[in-house]
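# nightly structure sweep
# worker-07 picked up a monomer target from the shared queue
# config: single-sequence mode, recycle default, output format = C-alpha cells
# input follows
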Amino acid sequence: MTGSPQTALILGGTGRTGSGLAKKLAEGGLATRTAARHGADVHFDWDDPATHPGALTGVDRLYLVTPVMRVTYADQVAAFLDLAEAAGVRHVTYLSTYGADQAPPQADIGAVEADLAARGNITHCVLRPAWVMQNFADAHLPVVNGAITVPTGGGTEAFVDADDIAAVAAETLLAPTTHAGAHYAPTGPQALTVAEVADTITAVTGRPVAHHDPDPELWIEGAVAAGVIPADYAVLLRWLTDTLGSGDGSTPNADVERVTGRPPTAFLDFARREAHAWTAGR
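# output follows
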C-alpha cells in the first residue's frame, strides 16, 4: 500500500473480532479507527448513511463487517464500498462466513464477496471463519439450566477463537499486498461435537453441563417467536444448523498458523481462559 496516512477503519470495532483486531494493528504500528453504534472511536450505523463519510476520512484500508442479524444488505454494502473507494480506501478485508459459497441464495454473503472481486481499484481478502468459540461464553449459545441448547444432530465443528480470527485479519491489513485476493478459513485445531464442548466446560469449571439437541424447526421457531432473531434470518440459521447436523461442518485446517505463524487456540485453552463466563455468580 502506498500513500499517507495509513489508517485502518474497523467496522464492528467493539465486537468479538474488531476489538482484538484494533489492539493487534496498533501493536503492529498501524493507526486504527474503530466504528460501531456505541463505544467506538466513531459512531457508525449501517442504517444512517450520514455516519459513513466521517468514518472513512483519511482511511486507506477497511475491515468490513456487514449488518448483523440480516440476510439482505448487499445494496447497502455496495453503496458504502463506493464511498470508501472515493475516500481513498485501497484494501478491504471482509469477514464472511465458513462455506459462504454454499449459503442460501436469499442471503447476501456471497453477493458481497462477488462485489469485492469485481472492484478494480481496491484489493481484498476474504475471511470465512468457522463458528466462534465465544458463542458458548456469551448470549449466542449460553449455558442455561446446565445445558447448551442447539440442534446439531451430533455433527462436528472446528470452533475457532475470535482472537485467532482477529490475528489473521491483522496480518491481512498490515500487509494487504501480500494477502490480496486470498481466501482464508480460520478454524480451531479440533472438530468437536457440542456434547464434547459441554464436557470440556464441565471439566474446566466443575459445573455439570450437557448438550440439549432439540428439533431444529421448533428451535428456530422459538427463537423467532422470542424475538431473538428476525423472521427472515431463520433461513440463514436453518442453513447453519443443517450444515452442522448433516456432517458438513467446518474441519480443521492450517490457515491460522499459515498466516500468523502460530497454531490456533484449542477449545480447552479457550475454556480455561474464559471459565469466568460460566462460573460468575456461582
